[in-house]
Amino acid sequence: MSRAMIVKSIQLQNYTVFEDTDLTFGQGINVFIGENATGKTHLLKLIYAACCANRQQVDFGNKIVMTMLPDEYRISRLITRKRGNHAASIRVAAVNTNSEPESYLSASFDNKTKKWNAIVKGKAAWEKKFNESSTIYIPAKEILSHSYQLSAAASVGNVRFDDTYLDIINSAKIDISMGKNPATRSALLKRIEKMTKGQVFYDVSKDEFYLMHGSSRQEFNLIAEGIKKMGLLWLLAKNGTLESGSVLFWDEPEANINPAYMSMIAELLLELQGNGVQIFLATHNYFLAKYIDIKRKARDHISFYSFYRETGKTAVNYEFSDQFSLLENNAITRTYLQIYRDELGIQI
Questions:
Q1: Do 180 and 322 belong to one domain?
Q2: Considering just the CA atoms, what is the radius of gyration of the chain in Å?
Q3: Taking a C-beta distance cutoff of 8 angstroms, is the pair 154, 166 a contact?
Q4: What is the CATH number of the domain that holds 28?
Q5: Distance from the CA of 174 to the CA of which of 36, 242, 257, 298 falls in 20 to 30 A?
Q6: pLDDT bracket for residue 311 (50, 70, 90)
Q7: How many other C-beta atoms lie within 10 A of the C-beta of residue 223?
Q8: pLDDT value at residue 2
Q9: Same domain, yes or no, for 121 and 250?
Q10: pLDDT (mean) for 323-338
Q11: pLDDT in tens, 105-137
């Protein structure tokens, strides 16, 4: 059975900031841009929760709640806050590399739904079709340096982290690769090592991560934030998680990263999608979005989605283009143009 999972679309009714939204995705890199509070991270987490529901032990409604963490774990709090809204619905479609008909996973809930007990449909077929696919979510904040017994503490309620943080720690600790690295993985690892200047090592006995420089190792909490984030990407590539057919979610890859590395990160993302990894990322960074656009090849699949609100409106709309420069409602470009105008104004 194929490991592949390609998310094709999502339909949302009254879910957080999305009142009536229907999005279609590409099989390569899907870039979400927009001002704060336009739902980019909400959307990443929701699609991630759907991908995680390919496992028998994962309930879709519960995963939504554990990635969003609404008060009292009530999924009903995710209904769009607007007079007259009493129910929400979600419908996600996906295919595999066998080009079979689309499979659907849906969830619906209203303001009387208890906890995470949404009405979920399509779960059995979803599991059967995608049960071997791999899904990874890299949060905006670095977490590996705080990994020591974090999962255990969270399980007993001593700390409160959403599932994206707990999941990425568990994924980083488990090596699912077999034997020698294939050529594509080795090339990717070498690219990342140019930025990290070393390799990441997990010490099981100490439950700690280290960056290895030859025979010496450095504690992860003593490493620069940007290097730690790239070290995590190296580890995911090394342990076989980022293989063809997997789905990667990355919230603000640019956070704490040296701007000089944006070109290399764009190349890494393009390489991953060329190797069969579907990617969803949210960014505020002009250079990252632009580098993805200008470094793409004709064979690459790149989609840009700009989320925005019209003046006086509360609901979020979106605009789609396969080219970053063609987006009309582009908050990133608008900001950089304003900087340019301000600079000219100072010089005049």
A1: no
A2: 20
A3: yes
A4: 3.40.50.300
A5: 257
A6: confident
A7: 23
A8: 47
A9: yes
A10: 88
A11: 999 999 999 999 999 999 999 999 998 889 999
Nearest to 127 by CA among 101, 160, 107, 104: 104
338: CB partners within 8 A, 6+ apart: none
Give residue for tokens 């779960």: 123
Report the DSSP beta bridge partners of residue 303.
30
Residue 158 clears pLDDT 80, i.e. is over it:
no
Answer yes or no: are the C-beta atoms of 327 and 290 closer than 8 Å.
Answer: no
- 43 and 94 inside one domain: yes
Do residue 158 and residue 260 come from a single domain? no
- Per residue, the 3-state secondary structure of the chain, as one string, reads CCCCCEEEEEEEEEECCEEEEEEECCCCEEEEEECCCCCHHHHHHHHHHHHHCCCCCCCHHHHHHHHHCCHHHCHHHHECCCCCCCEEEEEEEEECCCCCCCEEEEEEEECCCCCCCCEEECHHHHHHHHCCCCEEEECCCCCHHHCCCHHHHHHCCCCCCCHHHHHHHHHHHCCCCCCCCCHHHHHHHHHHHHHHCCEEEEECCCCEEEEEECCEEEEHHHCCHHHHHHHHHHHHHHCCCCCCCCEEEEECCCCCCCHHHHHHHHHHHHHHHHCCCEEEEECCCHHHHHHHHHHCCCCCCEEEEEEECCCCCCCCEEEEECCHHHCCCCHHHHHHHHHHHHHHHHHC
